[in-house]
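Provenance and format

Records in this collection were gathered into a single text stream. Each protein contributes a sequence line and a C-alpha cell line. The two records reproduced below are adjacent in the stream.
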Amino acid sequence: MKVVRTAGLDPDEVIIELTLPALTPSEGEAALERLSLRKGPTALFCVNDTVALGGLERRGITVPHDMAVMGYDDVEFAALLSPSLTAVRQPKHQLGQAAAELLLTDARGDAGHWHQEIVFQPELMVRASTSA
C-alpha cells in the first residue's frame, strides 16, 4: 500500500483483492472471470505460482504486454515457463527447518520454551512476466 500511495494513487481505487477457495490454477482462472467484470487490471500479484498459471493465455491476454504477472513461492518450474514467471522466493529449507524445530521443542515440553516469531527475508526473482 505504501508504494501505491507514494505513487500518488489511492489503494482503494487501484488494488483489487480476491479471495480464492483453493490455491489452484482453476481457481486462478475463476478469479480472472470475476475480474473481467471490472476495469481491466494491468498487473496481477498471485498468492502462489500455481494460481499465477490460471488461464491468461486462453483469454488472449499476452504476458507481460497486456498484463504483468507475479507469483509467490518461486517453484522450480517458474523460471521454465514462457514467459518465465517473476516470483517472490521464500527460503523453503530454512522455513521447514525452523518449523520442525519449533514443533519438536513444543512437543517435548522443554523447560523455558516460549513461542517466538521468526522472520525470513524473501527474495524477488525478476523474470520476463513483468518486463516492460
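Adjacent record:
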Amino acid sequence: MHISSGRWLYGMFLALLTAVLWGVLPIQLKQVLRAMDPVTVTWFRLLVAGSILFAYLAASRRLPRFRPLGKKGKWLLALAIAGLSSNYVLYLAGLTLLSPGTTQLVIQVAPILLLVGSLLVFRERFSLGQGLGLAVLLLGFGLFFNQRLTELLTSLSDYTTGVLTVLLAAFVWAFYGLAQKQLLTVWNSLQVMMVIYLACALLLTPWASPLQALALSPSQGWLLFACCLNTLVAYGAFAEALAHWEASRVSATLAITPLITFVSVALAASWWPGYVQPEQINWLAYSGAVLVVLGSALIALGPSLMVGLRARRARMQGLAKPLS
C-alpha cells in the first residue's frame, strides 16, 4: 500500500496547481476550437504530451515492456485507449456548444461515475458521508440549471446536446479510469500515460487534419501549445501530489476546479471582452456551482471523515469508561 511522504504543504501546492491548470484549460481550448475541430485539437494535445513522455522515459531507460501485460492487460489497455480518446473528443465537442464554466461543472460527474464503477467492479464501500455528498451534488446541479431546466428536459437544443455530450464524455472517462487503475499494477503512471497518449493519437490520425494549424492566429497557436503543455504538466503535478498527500484530500482540492473556471472566465471577459464571453447565469446558478463543488469534496473525503468520526467516538468512549 502506498504511503504519502508527509510533505502535505507541497502536496497541497501541487494539487492547487493542477486545479488551476485544469480550471483555465477550457478557456484556452474554446479559443483554439474557433479554428480547429475537436479531433485535431485532441490529436495535437495527445501527440505532443505523449512524445515528451516518450523522450523522457527513453532517456531514463524506463520505457514500458508489453510482455508483463498479458492478454487481460492488453484488453484493459485497449479499453483505456478507447475511453480516453473518446473522452477528449466528446469533451471538446460539448465545449463548442457550452460555456467553459458549464462544461467544467458537468464533467464533475466523471469522478462520481468512477466511484460507482469502483463499487461494482472493485467492491469498494460507499460511506454515509459520500451519500450526503452525492445528495448535495445533485441539489447543486438542480440549482445550477435552474434557468434552463425546462429546456434540458423538454427539447434537444444545442445547449441540451452540449450537456448530454459532456455527460457522455464523463461516462467513457469512467471506463478509462477503471482500466487505468488496473494497468498501474504493471506499469507506473508515466509509462501508462505515455502509451495511452501515443496510442490515442495514432487512433485519431485518420480523422485529424494537422494542416488546420496553419489557419491559427499567432495567439491561437500559442494557446494550442499551452493546451498541450497543460495536458502534460497538470497530470504530472496531480501524480506528484498523490505521492505527498492523501488521495482523498487531493481529490477534494481538485473539486474547486469549476470555481476556478468561473473566476477565470469573469477575469478574462473583463480583460479581453472581444474574445471571452462572460457566463450568462444568475446568482442561484452560482450557488448551485458552489454546492456541486462542496458535494464533490464530501464524496472524496467521505471515507476519511467516517474513519475520523469512528476514531473520535472510540476515544470519547474510552474517556467515559468508569475507572475500576
